[in-house]
Structures are given as structure tokens and as C-alpha cells.
Amino acid sequence: MKKNSSYKGRSLTAILLTIACFSCQGLEEMPEGISTPQNFYTTVAQCEAAYAGSMNALFVEWGGYQNIPAFPDGQFEGASLDIAATSFNDLWSWHYKAVANVNAVLKAVKQGSLSGNPQEDIDRVIAQGRFLRAFNYFTLVRLYGKIPYITEDTPDPVLTPLTPDSRLEIAQVYDLLEADLAFAAEHLGDFTAGTPGKPNKWTAKGYLAKVYLTRATAPLNQTENYAKARDMADDVITNGPYELLPGFRDVFKTSNNHNMEVMFAFHSSPQTPYMPGNTWAPSEMDGWSGGPVKIYWATNIYPEQPRKHSYLLLDFTSDIYDPSAPVINWSQSADGVPYIGKYNMPNLTYEQQVGGGNSGIEMKLLRFADILLIYAEAANMAGNGPTQLAVDRLNMIIDRANEGTGQEARATLAMTKAQFDQKVIDERSYELCFENDRYFDVLRKRILEQVNLPDNAQGYDENDYLLPIPALDAKAIGQNPGY
Fold first, then answer.
1. How far is C-alpha 433 from the chain's CA centre?
2. Nearest 5°: CA angle at 438, between 69 and 134?
3. 3-class DSSP state for residue 396?
4. 60 assigned to some structural domain
5. Helix, strand, coil shares, percent, the chain, to 5
6. In which band, very low, low, confident or very high, does the pLDDT at 30 lie, cut at 50, 70 and 90?
């Protein structure tokens, strides 16, 4: 079993019980000062604080997505397709806990907790909640397939327990989360520099483009969505505030958090600090050896170019505490593997790398580079091959990565539809590596066995395209095939 895969989640029913208990109105006496959803979510600030709490369910200190799930995406060293019934179970509970927090706010607002506030403010609170709910369900449906879509209107789980019928068909789940994102895109405000972490209408549109692209590919293969993805991505590119930074080295620096290439992210703070920088570092950098990179991918697949030596940690000091220590290649290191460069020096300061405290890393969830790549893929697949604009936007990523060296071949209009599609998927794996994106591309393009060859595909079968539902919930709603 691969490293970091044996997560064990809590029951979905137990999570929903928390909502049920918190929302209970059957008490004959209510001690003064006790908070309930109806008397707490009475201001916009209180609702937004709860939404921030929903993100904390995914990004808790020393846990959640701070400890990057080592999916078998062909990039993590030691990952395998020997997926057990307990593999990645915590992802289920993290996201349903986040949804529960969001739904508590939406339920209170629907019952009038924000009465007296301007309708525009109420709509924006609802839009933020529906965006966050869709964000969570987008992850869940891609990982688990048919799932319960719990909303603020879901009956009390104690009185109406979940059953196998609670699991909606995949297309139904997408219809619902798409509606949530469409509402968010219509009612969220524009980008505001003072609150870079808050979702805005362009964030929602970016995720809508990603949802459309995913619907166009496996398992639904609803190819009419390619055109929708193309047009939505073009809207974000043409009319939105975001941009591709001129230099890839500036994207991940902790001194440049909240830059205009980042559309959505986990923002660390003193209240939710990020783990020490040396978590992801090799032994020579006093690291914990987390996040080793697959040797075959780093040496045989990733093209030789300047970006490679920034996004991957291939050469590093032999002793971080000795300024005169020689630089060594990963093959000469004690661990004998490359590491993730995005989460190490020089993106971190020396103190963040070795200080043992908050490294200040901003974990990206959606970048403008992704939108350019979505456009390129969707425009090519919606027509009979690449368009000039699709080629140009893909080459923006490649040219930045090459820094004038020309080491990676550019895309051209002469490519066939299949060749251009492969070029885009490859570019996504290089540009978006270790940002919790590659695995979803692997799933929707049905290349799970391929990317785990030549050494990590043992035990592969088609059932591996879905993760196992935690045992307690599987007893109530059913298990995915193969587990």
C-alpha cells in the first residue's frame, strides 16, 4: 500500500448528526447566551467566519490537505495501485464535514437569520456557501462516483437515515453542483484586492469551466460540454482580473502569496499555520522526507527545462546548516529521490525552511495557468483540432517554462486533434504537478494504469478509478465495486 494512503474516516451519519443536534429546536428551555444557527448567523461576518471554518475542516493544522494526499498519479514516489478498503478514507470525512459547516449557514439564512440585511448581501452569503459546497462535491464525485448530495434541505438523518438510494447518479451530482456554481457566478462580487482569499465570480466561473471539462471526459463523456468549458474559460481569460505571471519562479514564493495568478487557495494564517517547510525536504535539508517525487517521472518524462529545476527539487545543499557545503544531485543524497520544489527553498526563506514553525506556504487550488490549459484542451476537442488561439494560449505556458531555451517543443497548428490533446494533458502534468490536480486528470482521461507503469501498476483493475467509501457509511449506502 502506498505511503499516506491508509486514512480512516468518520461516519457521514455522525457528521450529519452534529448538524441535527446543533439545529435542534425541541428544548423547552434555552439558557440565555446559548448559540444556535438561528441566533448566531445574524451577520454577514458570522456567516463568513463559519465558511472559513468549513475550509479549516480541509486544512487543519498538521492534517488535511496540508499533508498532500499521495495519490497514485505517476508523480509520487512510493504510490501504488494496491488500494485497500481503508485507503484515503479521510478525504470522505473531511469534505462532508466541510459541507456540513456550509449547510448549517445556508439553513439558518433560509430560515431568516439575516433578515434586515440588504438582499444583495444575503445573496452573496448564499453564493459563497453554494460555491464552497460545490467545491467540496466536485472533489467527492470525482473520487467516489455516486454520492449523497446533502444540502440544507436534507431531512434529519436520525429520522430519515441514509440508504443506497441516497447516492445520486454521477450526472445528477454534476447537475446540482453546477447549479450551485452558476448561482455563485451570478451573485458573488468581483475580485477585491483586500480579500484575496474570498471566492468571487471569476473563481466560480473558473470552477465551472473545470466542471464542464470534466463532464466532457470520463466517466460521463458528455462531449457537448467541451464548448461550454471553452467559452467559460475564455470569459475568465478575456474579462477576468487574473494573469499569468511573467516568471514561473514568482508563483510559489511565500513572499508573493496572493499573487494574481492564484484564483483560489488555502491561505495559511497564525490561526491555521502551515506545517514547517522542512516537512517536504530531503534529509540533507533537515527534512522529514515528505513528498518524494517518482524518479521515473522526474528523469524520463518531465522535459529538461528551467521550470523543471524550480518545480522539482533535484539539486540541493548537502548540509543546509553549512553555507559552504557542496550542492549535490538527488541521486547522491541519503534519501535517493527528488522532492517537490514548489514547497522548498528558494520559494521559502531560510528561516521558514529550517525554523520549525509556520512556513507560510499558500496551497494553490486554482491558478490562471489552469484556465489557459482548460481553454486549450476544450477548444481543440470542441472542434476538429487546435485553433490558433488554443495554440497561442498553450504556448504561453510552454514559453514561460522554457525561458527562451526552447528545450520543450512548442505546440503548433499542424498538430492533429489527438496530438494536441496529448500535448495539453502532458503540459498540465508539468505545470500543475503536486497541486492536487494531476490525479483528477488521470481519472478523467482514464490513464491510471499507464501513468503507474513501469513499476507501480501491480493490482490495477478498472475499479481503481473510484476510491472505497468508508466502511461505516458503506453499510448504509453501499460500497463501490471492488472493495
1. 12
2. 75
3. helix
4. yes
5. 50, 5, 45
6. very low
